Every structure is written in structure tokens, then in C-alpha cells.
Amino acid sequence: MTLLRNFFIGLSTNETARNFVKHFGPARQLSRRFVAGESLDEAIAVSKALNANGIKVILNSVGESVSNQAEAQQSAQNYQDLLQRVKAEGIEASITIKPSQVGLAFDPDFCYEAIADIVQSARELDILVEIDIEGSPDVEATLRMYHRLLDTFEGGVRQAVQSYLHRTPADVKRLIERGGGIRLVKGAYQELPEIALQDKKAINQACLDIIEMMLTPDALDRGAYLVLGSHDPLLIEALLEKAKTQNIKAEQFEIQMLLGVRRDEQQRLADLGYQMRVYVPYGPAWYPYFMRRLAERPANVFFILRAMVGK
Ligand code: FDA
How far is CA 197 from CA 133, 175, 258, 299, in A? Predict the structure, then answer.
């Protein structure tokens, strides 16, 4: 399984594989389950359909690292345009930003200023901003930036954290002290054992420990807010059970899942009155994102292989 996972993560940067997936019908069709489309119009249409079923969305213009100031500036502008469009369409959406798209690697100050401008605009439009967390080389700078955002804005911004990183419990402790909002995910990148847990059970236990930390009366009093970004029934049930026994209201936490994954469960949780938000990726650079989804569930690839042999 790990081999397959690494294989798909490897393919996420492979140009031949990219061209194959983009032009091979069944692969492209499967990608549309996980990615709203190449255009914002398509993402808005998908968002409206989810909203109509009581599910909120987080919009993400997919793309990975940019390598120069002009590209970073363009990404920042795209996020600003996205905010205006969300407002104009009246959809129930937050947006999420990948810091590497806004120049984190080569100009952290520019990145901070651009994201602060986006958060300021979002605040004026009453839209929540979330910050994705990427590979381990970017984690320290991303969290430093989030703390700066908390200094300036206090609320209205949430930061994703990865339970597989050894450092995360200490990071979460600091975020709780600041009353931060976190999106807790397991972590999607390939990391070394020195940096991240490798064992599924240990990663799950780390998630459970962080859920516990985030839902103590002290954390809730400080305004810390927990979002669980996972499809894992074990984690979701543990969170719901904890909320029930501690009398924590449905508005005091949120569950997020990715577009196309466990769609029935998304609807079931929304129908039960929980806050359910679906991550809606879109944009021309959707391919590496799609490969990471296949890496998580290689079973999906058998669908493509079957189509290739005409069965
Ligand atoms: P995992 O993949 O470990 O699966 C656990 C169990 O969930 C399975 O055994 C199965 O029961 C169920 N399940 C999972 N997929 C299923 C499917 N397709 N159908 C049926 N059952 C399924 N990562 C990151 O590094 N930075 C980030 O910023 C984010 N952001 C983010 C936002 C949101 C909203 C989500 C949901 C996820 C992320 N991630 C992320 C990705 C995250 O780190 C992780 O890689 C994936 O969510 C996969 O882990 P899960 O917790 O979903 O369970």
C-alpha cells in the first residue's frame, strides 16, 4: 500500500502521466469526481449544488508552488477575485490558501502581506479564510505567518495542521493559547520518519490526542475552534461521541471532507445538523491534487485500468 501511495505521489510531478490523465477519457472522468473543473464557474456550480443540500464549501484554486514574484502576485489577485465572486454569488463558502502559491518559499514577507490583504478583504465581505499546510519545509514559516495573522486579525482565519508531524502537538498547544482555529488533518505529503509518524495507528492516535486537546473547557473558553478534516469513521465518531458526552454544541466544531469522497456520509452528517464543509478544488493545475487523492485510495485506479483494457 505504501509503495502504491509513493508511486502516485511520484506521478503527481510526472509530465507524461499528466498528459495521459488529461487526455484519457475515463481518467479525466474520474478526476471530475474530485475536482470541480478547470474554471471558477464550474466550482461555483458545484458549490451551489452542495449548498442546496445544506453543505458548506471551502473553495481552493488548486496550484502548487510558484517560483517568482509575478506569479505570486497573480495568485494573490486570484484569491481576491475569488472572494468577490463568492460574495456576488451569495454562496456559503470559505476560501483556502496555499502559502506556496503566494511566494512563501522565496519571499515570506510578501506572502504575509498578500495573505493579510486577502484576510482583510475577506473580513469586509464576511468570508472565512483558511490556510492549507504543505510539505514539512514550509511548516515553520506557515505557522509563523499564522501567528502574525492572529496578532493582526484575532479571528476569521483558520490554520490546517497535520497530525503526522512530530512537532504538531506543541504547535497546537501554542495555537490553543492564542485561541486559534485549526483544521486538523492527517497529512498528505511524503515525510521522513524523523519528521513524521509513518504508522497509520500512531497517526490516528495523534489525531485523537489533538481532538482531546482542542475540546478541553479551557481551549473552548479561549476561543480555540476545531475543524476535523478527515473521512475516517473512527475519528469522526470519536469527535461526535466526545461532543455528545461533553455537551459541546454542533456549532462549536466542524467536519470537513474532500469533494467526491464519502458523499453519502457528507450528506448524512449535514442532515443530522452537524456543520459539514466540503473542500472544492478547481483550476487548470488540478493534476497533482488528483494524484494525491489516488495515492490515498489506490482502489480508484482500478477503475482507470479497467477502462484501459476495455472491461
Ligand atoms: P484515510 O485516507 O487515512 O482513510 C481512513 C478511513 O477513511 C478509511 O479506512 C476509510 O474507512 C475512510 N475513507 C477514506 N477515503 C474514503 C473513500 N474514498 N471512500 C470511503 N471511505 C473512505 N493534507 C495536508 O497535508 N494539508 C492540508 O492542508 C490538507 N487539507 C485537507 C482538507 C480537508 C477538508 C481534508 C478532508 C483533507 C485535507 N488534507 C490535507 C488531506 C489529509 O491530510 C489526508 O491526506 C486525507 O484526508 C486522507 O486522510 P483521512 O483522514 O481522510 O483518512
Answer: 16, 21, 23, 23
